[in-house]
């Protein structure tokens, strides 16, 4: 199913952690400068702005509260050369179509990251002479769009070419040095134990060059996965790989780790539902992972019988859903509660006679799963490891309200 995934533009994000030879400024249609927090760039789902029946970004923002988009994919020209294009055919230098999409997003207070690479096609790391030339090509993209974030998607067939990966990682390091403040992610294929041989070689190349992006993300799909449990197992395995490669402890490795999933039916016929996304989101937040994203917003809508038929589609998810259901998990990862069409107030827990309050919550204490505390005349139970996170401060936080005491 790899050819289909190439058509869909599989979400493999390889991001560069710093951007711009000059100060990076994003300018909205109104002329105001805008930049989002790193958390938003880490939560940006993929969007193909020119292919796969692009949805209206403004409508998604209004429906979900989403602010950041990962635009895909920048490639080398199909005929060869070391200049950036959209999809191998549309030169970045003369682009107006993607620029218009970006301007519309920024006019509503959002922003974008740009993803380079993806599955299939010819990558700039394959055609540019060396890391400096590769970086110069990507700098054109950063400068053209005033980027605060960039995503390097390193996968087949490029990541099987050691010279190409050397160019990409070297370019990433150069951009990081020349563009302070650019959010950089590097995404590669996922396997049951984390990532495969080529993914591990990419990490070793980064280590040898002294390059550390904001995160290394894996894509745990299209590799014999079955639901969220297999994905969290892969994330745990990848964490161990990051520890052994870079000499990090577990917490540091998780702080540099990311998840890039595929919503609905994958290219190989795996299914990932909203419940799976919630489970992985809980894992990512519990372990303080740096990134949570998915491929793609073009697919984040219900299929019709005519365009589904039990196959994987580039324009719908092939699972039962409402429009933009999966985007809401990115919003939650960013730390925001998505709007709902029919909001219902959360009922105030009814005090239970005779329930005593547990020991008072302390900001200095470390709590693990099922530890109980009291705060604000309510008892709370920890859902996972936590420290200095106020009970009830966030709907998606680590504390479960057990009622008044």
Chain-wise SSE layout:
Blueprint: H1 2-8, H2 38-42, E1 46-47, H3 57-64, E2 68-75, E3 85-86, E4 90-91, H4 97-107, E5 111-117, H5 124-127, H6 131-145, E6 149-153, H7 162-178, E7 183-189, H8 197-209, E8 215-219, H9 227-246, H10 250-255, E9 257-262, E10 264-265, E11 271-272, H11 274-286, E12 291-295, H12 327-333, E13 366-367, E14 372-375, E15 378-382, E16 386-387, E17 399-404
Parallel strand pairs: 1-2, 2-5, 5-6, 6-7, 7-8, 8-9, 9-12
Antiparallel strand pairs: 2-3, 3-4, 10-11, 13-16, 14-15, 15-17
Structural notes for this entry:
With 405 residues, the protein is α/β, with parallel strands linked by helices. The chain is 31% helix and 18% strand. The protein has twelve helices and 17 strands. The protein has helices spanning 2-8, 38-42, 57-64, 97-107, 124-127, 131-145, 162-178, 197-209, 227-246, 250-255, 274-286, 327-333; strands at 46-47, 68-75, 85-86, 90-91, 111-117, 149-153, 183-189, 215-219, 257-262, 264-265, 271-272, 291-295, 366-367, 372-375, 378-382, 386-387, 399-404. Strands 1, 2, 3, 4, 5, 6, 7, 8, 9 and 12 form a ten-stranded mixed β-sheet that branches. A hairpin with a 2-residue loop joins strand 14 (372-375) and strand 15.
Q: Tally of extended strands?
A: 17
The oligomeric state is: single chain
Helix and strand composition category: alpha/beta
Question: How many strands, what sense, and barrel or not for the largest sheet?
Answer: 10 strands, mixed
């Amino acid at each position: 199913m790899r050819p289909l995934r190439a058509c869909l533009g599989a979400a493999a994000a390889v991001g560069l952690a710093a951007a711009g030879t000059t100060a990076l400024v994003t300018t909205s249609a109104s002329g105001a400068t805008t930049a989002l927090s790193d958390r938003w760039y880490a939560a940006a789902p993929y969007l193909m702005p020119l292919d796969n029946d692009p949805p209206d970004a403004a409508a998604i923002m209004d429906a979900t509260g989403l602010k950041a988009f990962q635009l895909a994919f920048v490639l080398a020209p199909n005929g060869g050369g070391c200049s950036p294009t959209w999809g191998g055919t549309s030169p970045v230098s003369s682009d107006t179509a993607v620029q218009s999409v970006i301007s519309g997003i920024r006019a509503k207070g959002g922003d974008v990251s740009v993803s380079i690479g993806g599955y299939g096609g010819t990558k700039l790391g394959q055609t540019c002479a060396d890391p400096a030339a590769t970086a110069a090509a990507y700098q054109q993209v950063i400068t053209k769009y005033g980027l605060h974030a960039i995503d390097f998607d390193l996968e087949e067939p490029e990541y099987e070419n050691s010279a190409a990966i050397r160019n990409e990682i070297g370019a990433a390091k150069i951009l990081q040095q020349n563009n302070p403040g650019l959010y950089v992610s590097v995404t590669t294929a996922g396997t049951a134990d984390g990532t495969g041989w080529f993914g591990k070689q990419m990490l070793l190349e980064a280590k040898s060059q002294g390059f550390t992006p904001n995160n290394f993300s894996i894509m745990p799909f299209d590799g014999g996965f079955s639901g969220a449990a297999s994905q969290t197992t892969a994330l745990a395995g990848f964490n161990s790989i990051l520890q052994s490669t870079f000499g990090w402890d577990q917490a540091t490795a998780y702080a540099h780790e990311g998840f890039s999933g595929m919503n609905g039916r994958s290219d190989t016929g795996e299914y990932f539902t909203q419940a799976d996304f919630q489970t992985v989101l809980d894992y990512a937040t519990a372990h303080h992972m740096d990134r949570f994203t998915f491929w793609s917003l073009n697919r984040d809508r219900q299929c019709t019988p005519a365009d589904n038929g039990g196959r994987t589609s580039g324009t719908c998810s092939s699972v039962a859903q409402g429009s933009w259901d999966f985007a809401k998990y990115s919003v939650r990862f960013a730390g925001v509660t998505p709007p709902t069409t029919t909001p219902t107030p959360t009922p105030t827990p009814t005090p239970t006679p005779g329930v005593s309050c547990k020991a008072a919550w302390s900001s200095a204490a470390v709590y693990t799963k099922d530890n109980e505390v009291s705060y604000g005349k309510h008892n709370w139970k920890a859902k996972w490891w936590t420290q200095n996170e106020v009970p009830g401060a966030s709907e998606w936080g680590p504390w479960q309200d057990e009622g008044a005491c």
